[in-house]
Request: fold
Amino acid sequence: MTSDADPGAVPTVDDEVVAQLAAHPFTDGLDAAHLRGMAQGGAIVELAAGQYVFRQGQTSATFHLLLAGDVDLEVSGGGTAPLVLESLHAGDALGWSWLFTPHRWAFDAHCRTPVRAVVLDATHLRALIDHDATIGRDLTRRVAELVIDRLRHARLQLVSGHAHDHDS
Reply:
């Protein structure tokens, strides 16, 4: 991830992060320079089953591209069991709140199984979007499509009253 210690320092680029970005459906069709730009300060992470990737209301400082495992998007309320709005799997993108003010997570993300993911720094991505119109337009469109998909799944969940899997 990027560091606040030296604002003039160029974040490192991990070749494995670039390779995983190149193979991920979310970034399909992006050119190599944009993938390298996105990967600056990124990392591959492993998360345990049962671990929360993030919690609703927390600051959204990262963007996750799932490589392996399953993550449930949940909402909690009133002391009841969390309601699973959607289950995400390898090949899915996790999190869109990093792009939109106030940069707070809208849901909980709970690892149902062990998870492997590319984690990208939100501050870096927002700066990239602001400084490069081509990648800015492309990433914003892709994230907007992600938001629409998540809202559609949330609506289906609320209307039907039972969980819908991302694959359905």
Notes: The longest strand covers residues 62-68. The chain has one domain: 15-160. Residues 34 and 134 are 9 Å apart (CA to CA).
